[in-house]
Amino acid sequence: MKYGQIFFSIFFFLWLLSAIPAVNDCSAYSFIDESGIKETGQATGHASISLTQRSPAQMLGMIIKVLLSFLGVVFLIIMIYAGYSWMMARGNEQVAEKAKGTIVNATIGLIIIMLAYAITVFIGGQLAGSTAVG
């Protein structure tokens, strides 16, 4: 597979992901408004938090979670690609070694992502004075 094809595939996948929020806005049935769950939550003392009621710190935390989740999906795709390359090496040592290197590098990347999440949660908790994780 050429680099142009890989770039196009990644670009197309990201373009599809950008269309997902638009699909949610076009729904004809609003579960929260029409199912009665909103009234039940208010009766039991659970207040709903919409996106407009969130603080900037909560919004930043939500954005970081989405980005780190996306990086987890990228890790999964890279691992599947590397595993497939290793299986299809057919005895070619160079291709197998390249696939092994890709797996090692993807694992190191995942560890870095997990450490970034842990540091973000720790620093965010210290700045907000909260011990809640997530």
Write the layout of secondary structure elements.
Elements: H1 3-18, H2 20-25, H3 31-34, H4 37-43, H5 56-87, H6 93-128
Helix pairs in contact: 5-6
Which features characterize this protein?
mainly alpha, membrane, 6 helices, 134 residues, elongated
Could you describe the 3D structure shown?
75% of the residues lie in helices and 0% in strands. The protein has 134 residues and is mainly alpha-helical. It has two domains: 1-48, no CATH class; 52-134. Helix 5 (56-87) packs antiparallel against helix 6. The longest helix is centred in the C-terminal third of the chain and has 36 residues, at 93-128. The radius of gyration is 21 Å and the shape is elongated. The model has no long low-confidence stretch (mean pLDDT 78). InterPro entries: T4SS_pilin.
- Sheet-strand content, in percent, reads under 5%
Please state the average pLDDT score: 78
Task: Please state the structural category.
Answer: mainly alpha
- Number of DSSP E strands: 0
| Estimated helix fraction | over 70%
Count of folded domains? 2
Enumerate how many helices there are, as a single number: 6
Following the backbone from N to C, one meets helices and strands in this order, namely HHHHHH
Summary of the model, kept short:
The chain is an all-alpha fold and 134 residues long.
